[in-house]
Amino acid sequence: MSSRGKASDVSGVTADGAAWLASAGPYPRGTPDAPPVLPCGVVFDVVSAPAVFGRRMLDRMWEEGPGSGPVAEFRRRILLFAAPGTAQRLPVLMEWEEWGARGARTDGVPPLLCHGAGDAVTLPAPVSADPAEPPPAARWLVAPDTRRPWLPGPEVLLWAAVRAARAAVRISIFPPADRDANVYDVSRRR
User: Fold this and answer.
1) Residue 4, pLDDT score
2) Can you tell me the distance from the alpha carbon of 72 to that of 55, in angstroms, rounded to the nearest whole number?
3) What's the pTM?
4) Which of 28, 162, 164, 177 is 20–30 Å from 67 (CA)?
């Protein structure tokens, strides 16, 4: 299955996907059935979002955009794999667009953690877990399956974050209704 396929159909990493992950560092730590810890910044960057918001971003990317690269879930956070350099560029774009933590407008975008050069992330084990066991703390939502998966850049992730925030917050130009107001049906007057 391609990493650009449906996110919910993926349970494990292919041999090519494992080779791609291993290429991130000269000494990946972990065993085939244990979560590896890999460095960011050379082969990929990772943007981490709270689980609910990260799912909304992922939905926007698949429903309205180009899809996603590999995506994992770890300790109630969504890890979106991105092109190298995204960790440095995305916060700048968000601040420039006033969507960042220091910007004037937050509109429902939680702080996104950007992992790039000098950072390392814990990933799900490349081997899928036994279905009889309790769910692992880390799992693949879209597992890497090629030696060169497509990775979104900072512009795509900014677009997904903005769309996810706008979908979560319904904005109206009308003031909220006064719940104590008397309302009369005038449509049946003669």
Assistant:
1) 43
2) 11
3) 0.75
4) 28
- Cα gap 85→79, rounded to integer Å: 16
Cβ distance 149 to 84 under 8 Å? no
Residue pair 17/125 in contact (Cβ under 8 Å)? The answer is no
Residue matched to tokens 């065993």: 31
For 107-127, the DSSP string reads: TT-PPPEEE-TT-EEE---SS
| Cα 150 to chain centroid, rounded | 14
Spatial CA neighbour of 140 closest among 152, 114, 155, 122: 122
Is 59:142 a contact under the CB 8 Å cutoff? no
> What are the counts of helices (DSSP H) followed by strands (DSSP E) for the chain?
4, 7
Q: Is the pLDDT of residue 177 over 80?
A: no
Using 50, 70 and 90 to split pLDDT, how confident is the model at 10?
Answer: very low
Look at strands 138-142 and 113-115 and give their pairing: unpaired
Instruction: Give the pLDDT mean for 83-88.
Output: 97
Q: What pLDDT, on a 0 to 100 scale, did the predictor assign at position 99?
A: 66
Instruction: Encode pLDDT of 133-167 as tens digits.
Output: 656 678 899 999 999 999 999 999 999 998 898 87
Which structure tokens are listed for 133? 């066991």
Q: How far apart are CA 1 and CA 178, in angstroms?
A: 53
What distance in Å separates the CA atoms of residue 122 and residue 36, rounded to the nearest whole number? Answer: 6
